[in-house]
Each structure stands twice: as structure tokens, then as C-alpha cells.
Amino acid sequence: MKENPRLIRGMHDLLPEAYHGHQSVIDAALQQAHLAGFQRIDTPIMEESRLFDRGLGASSDIVGKEMYSFTTRGGEEVSLRPEGTASVARAFFSHGLAQSVPLRYFYAGPMFRYERPQKGRLRQFHQFGAELIGASGSLADLEIIALGQEILNTLGVADKTVLHLNTLGSTTDRAAFRDALLAYFSAHKASLSEDSLRRLDTNPMRILDSKAEQDRALLADAPMIDEYLAEASRRRFDQLCTGLQALGIAYVRDHHLVRGLDYYEHTAFEFITDALGAQGTVLGGGCYDRLFEIVGGKPATGVGFAAGIERLSALITAPEMPKADCALIPIGSEAEAFAPVLAQSLRRAGIATVYGFSGKVKARMKQADQSGVAFCVIFGTEELAQDVWKVKDMANGEETLLSTEALQAFLNTKIR
RNA sequence: GUGGCUGUAGCUCAGUAGGUUAGAGCGCCUGGUUGUGGUCCAGGAGGUCGUGGGUUCGAGACCCAUCAGCCACCCCA
Questions:
Q1: Residues of A from 85 to 144 whose C-beta is within 7 A of strand B: which are they?
Q2: In this predicted complex, what is the ipTM?
Q3: Strand residue runs (E) in A259-416
Q4: Structure confidence by residue, pLDDT tens digits, A257-316
Q5: Which residues from 204-223 of A have any strand B atom under 7 Å from their CB?
Q6: Other C-beta atoms within 10 Å of A399: how many?
Q7: Where do you find CATH 3.40.50.800 in chain A?
Q8: Was domain A16-170+230-315 assigned CATH 3.30.930.10?
Q9: How far is the CA of A1 from the C1' of B47 (A)?
Q10: How many angstroms separate the CA atoms of A312 and A314, rounded?
Q11: Which of residues 145-174 of A touch strand B (CB under 7 A)?
């Protein structure tokens, strides 16, 4: 316990049961993504640090203090990815994909953030996400939100979440709004919390979602984004709202929803739950047109979301683990030697077969039982001599003697 | 990064105002059954009490440090 290697802080093993929960979340998401025409991609978990430095914005906490960054033996400055979108944007340019627009991509994998661990917050965690590149406007926003909603529906967690929706306006709208906020809060510096005083310098919009009472008291009279929206921005948002209504997707307009990454503009949304403690966002995203120019120098449009697999996994009722269909219990060295042969033929017939339990027959039966198999095939010198297999139904204890062909047929009908 | 709570067997926890050989339940192993699980009965193994230091005649209990976990802030998936 003292000298042995330990788990690094904030890192978690996924034992079979937890892994299965994760996988079923990914499977459900993937299934819906497929139905919507999104294709799976993977990008490296490591990128040049400057991709994230520039892409996510220096004012974001992620870049400021949460990245796993280091210098390689070759002297490259690299970072473990803290999120997936910047990499997708990079890949867009790396492969000249501007030709093939619009693109619908889905990804899933580990992300890394050097934060203090807490409920629903790990240093290595897993996200899946969807990105729609090269389509823009309210229809693209709607498509992405609808996919997110559909995934939550499939997972059966939709009733535990609320969709929060906001618009941040275009880059120019946002800048004007920002200035107005800066002016307003600067005039009320005395009443601001310590954290918000800091935000005033780094990112005034973040004061909007402050949890501090003293800050919230100021919010009522604070400038609203709606007052700063250009006509086109307003229309885009209105059309999105109309579209959501048409799809029967409920939402709440959250004027204080601000996302932490600098690249967002126009539509921003989060599906939030109150069942997970303080880390309530389960799936969130928005429009990130600006990211492309920052990353690749050329304009493109994008909207997408990312979802926390651990958080979703904690919300769903864990599906049952898949079990093997039957276990082999050979008795005696002759039978022992034949177990692999029988296992091979059963497996080739599509029957999931386990063997190799240790100890006496009693102990093996117990292990087989605990592995959850529905049937045991018990055979020793007697059975081998008569060329039969004794099959035991673990549910009711019934035993049947069967020939090899009959065994496969028997198991196949019982299992399906 | 800041604050609060916690750290005793594989798991969940108990451990009186500091006092000899640290307990329970579950799990595990063995036996009751020569080739048979899930119930029952009997027995058994397993702990440097997170780690390091200190106080004391004596520390699992008290103090300090450190590490880890949890919860909240911060931030976000």
C-alpha cells in the first residue's frame, strides 16, 4: 500500500460493469447518430498545445490552468486534449475537407482536464460529441439539438434533464454586449464578489452565471443580450425556437447561459440535470464558426455538442451485463483435454462458451453459476465413453443427456 | 487553486474517557456430498488500523505533516 503503484489522482479504472455502462451509453448515442447521418471519426488524444491555446481561448479556464501540457523528447509542445471540437476543426483542415461539406461527424473518447476531482468531474473523463460542419444557421442548430435530445430520449434520461437555451449573438453583437456588461458591472464593483471582480478582467460574461448571491442581485438590472442582437442574429434565434416547437422539444430560455469556451457564438445550449450534484450539465454545445478561422485561417461554419459519458452513465439504470451461454465442466484429465475442442465447436456454432474453472467439481459448478451462465455441460469418463454430454439447466437443475449435434441444437434453441 | 468532511479485512462499517491477543455482516476458502451450483450447518484464512513523524509508561483513537477519497467553491462534460 505504501510502495506499490497507485491510481493517479482523478483517474479511474473502468471495471467490466462500469465499462458496460459506458459502452451502452456510447452505443445508444452512436445508433442515433447513425440514424441522423453522422459518421464516426477519431482524432488523436494529443495535439500541439497551440491548437487548444488558440482555439479555446486564453481567457478560458481550461487553457489557463487545466491542461495536461508537456514537452516531448523531440521538443514539441503538446497537450492531452481537454475537449474534442478543436481537434475536429484541425482535422477538417488537415484533410482538405472543405470540399466535402456539409460534414456530420460523431466521436467518442477520453478527454483530460487538470481540475480538482469532484462528483461528476474527473481528470480523465469520456465524452461523445457530434459536429455539423459547413451548414449554418438555425436549421443546423436545430439538427444538432434534436440529435442531442434524441440521444437523451433513447437513454431514458430525457425526463431528468432540462434544455437551457441562449444566444450569444454574432461576434460583433457579443462584443457590444460584452462592453455593456463591462460598463455596468464596473459601475457596481463594490457589490461584486471576489470571483466576479476577477471575471471582470478575464471574461465579464461569466458574471452572468455566477452563483454568488451578491452577484445575482445585480443581474436583474444588467444588460441583456437581446438588446444587442443584430436583426439577423435575432431572426436566427427565433427560427431555432420555432423549429424546436415544431419538434416538440421543450426548452427554457436561459439569458445567463454562457459557455466556457471562447469559440462559441450565436446558439448555446446545455441539457442540465439536478440529479448529479453541482456538475449538472450532461450535454452541451453550440455554434462555433469562429473556431475555424482561429485554427485553420479560413472561414467555415460549425455547430455541435459534447456529452459527458460518466455523467450520463450515472443517470441511466445500468443494463445487465452480457453473460456466456454455457460453461464446460470437464471431470478427469481426458475430459479436461477435450474441453477446448468442445468449446471451439460450440463457439463456432454461435454459443458463448466458457471453461477453465479450477478446483473440484463443486467449486467449478459454483464458479460457473456465478459467471451467470444458463447451462453447464458436465462430462467425464462416463459421458466420453457413451459419446454423450450431460447438460444442466442452471435455472431449474434439470439434466439432459445429448449427442454432439443435439447439444448444439438444444443450446441454440434455448439461448435464442 | 480555496474550504469542509473522511481514510480500520476484498466490500459496507463498529471500535466505549488512549490500556493487554482489533471486531461484525457480506464475500472468499475448507468440510458436511465418491462427479454437481443457488439454501442450510460447521470450521478457516485474511488487517504493518492510508503514509510519515510527534505526545504518552502505553495510540486505531490525541497533535502535526503528507497522500488519497468525498462534498462544495471555481470551472465544466
A1: 113, 115-122, 125, 127
A2: 0.86
A3: 265-273, 281-287, 302-308, 326-330, 353-354, 375-379, 389-393, 399-402
A4: 988 788 899 999 999 999 888 889 999 999 999 999 999 989 999 999 999 999 999 999
A5: 206, 210-212
A6: 10
A7: 326-415
A8: yes
A9: 12
A10: 5
A11: none
